[in-house]
Amino acid sequence: MQKFPIKLEKSLEKRKQQDAVRKLCDSTGLVDFSSNDYLGFASCRDISEEAARILESGKLLNGATGSRLLSGNHDLFAIAEKEICTVFRSEAALIFNSGYDANLGFFSSIPQRGDMILYDEHAHASIRDGIRLSDARSIKFSHNDLEDLEKKLIRHIGSSGNGEIFVVTESVFSMDGDSPDIKGLIDLEEKYGFFLILDEAHATGVMGEEGRGIVAGMQLQDKVFARILTFGKALGSHGAAILGSENLKQYLVNFSRSFIYTTALPPHSVATIIAVSRNLHTEGKKEVEKLKNNIDYFLQVVKDLELQQYFITGPSAIQCCLIPGNARVKNLAAQLKRTGFDVKPILSPTVPAGKERLRFCLHSYNSQVDIKSVLSLVAKNMISLQ
């Protein structure tokens, strides 16, 4: 047996003691309340066939063959980025290999030494990791608390010298499913002159007019310095894009290391991005509407079963039932699995201790029967947990 570093072994043992060991899961065949495939696009035959047609008219390659600055900038990228700009209302778009790559590439290259980054305390790990790679200073503000953000802006605006200030948050948060006050953020931006960045990963395809995201749905795209969209969630494919001005795109092409020094997405992935973007504002509009109806129905059943005290609810596809303690929430998730429902437990340290939860991801293809059944099981088990 190969040697293993003692410190790493101790870290694994500590995770086991916390009952928080992560494991790779097989696909279950259960009723899906866990995936990010909010609109069912990942298994949509029409999208798959459209992507195949796009490939036939373009490049039939298995791989990109290199980075986009070398041999990998196949013709489909220009088509995809133009389509993304049309659908999501942006001057320019630049495709990255994933949302993680996009956030690393943005925050490690855009904020400079002497600049300040203010980020929501619940910001995604990819945002935090990108900030760690930046030469700028950074400080978090209380979750969705614009008063705290303004206090920190006032405190640091004088000490930033000639540096720029960047404020980053998410339009829908992955662990709570809640959203910040976007108009309030815009008001602060106009008052203090900072650059606003919004990660729309969990809003893309779900929120706003025809699933265009919250920013475009509110016609505020010209007020936001940068938006990060991902295609691996509601759009059922892979990759991500940073939306903003043409100047922003050109800067990222020249200085974003996670863009420059990686093999580009293969043609098939880019063809699928084109297909899902087109589908979103054509046939996909029906799925967006079905998802919104299911969200409304879920919230109504939560109310009918008097479960409001346990849930963090909102208008997004993510709904969370707080069940403190890793063991307790894992036990309830296991009970739901035995009855045919795939609802994932979210454990500490992913969320703070005492804030463990069941996270329900809703989809356009969930039936009202399944929604009511799974929530009835939760209600029954919540009584036994009291």
From TrEMBL:
Pathway: Lipid metabolism
InterPro entries: Aminotrans_II_pyridoxalP_BS, Aminotransferase_I/II_large, AON_synthase_class-II, PyrdxlP-dep_Trfase, PyrdxlP-dep_Trfase_major, PyrdxlP-dep_Trfase_small
Coiled-coil residue windows: none
Pfam families per UniProt: Aminotran_1_2
Gene3D superfamilies named in the record: Aspartate Aminotransferase, domain 1 (3.90.1150.10), Type I PLP-dependent aspartate aminotransferase-like (Major domain) (3.40.640.10)
Domain of life: Bacteria
GO molecular function: transaminase activity
Domain Aminotransferase class I/classII large: 30-363
SUPFAM superfamilies: PLP-dependent transferases
Transferase recorded as keyword: yes
Family, as annotated: Belongs to the class-II pyridoxal-phosphate-dependent aminotransferase family. BioF subfamily.
Keyword Ribosomal protein: no
Keywords: Aminotransferase, Pyridoxal phosphate, Transferase
Cofactor(s) essential for the protein: pyridoxal 5'-phosphate
Name of the protein in question: Aminotransferase class I/II-fold pyridoxal phosphate-dependent enzyme
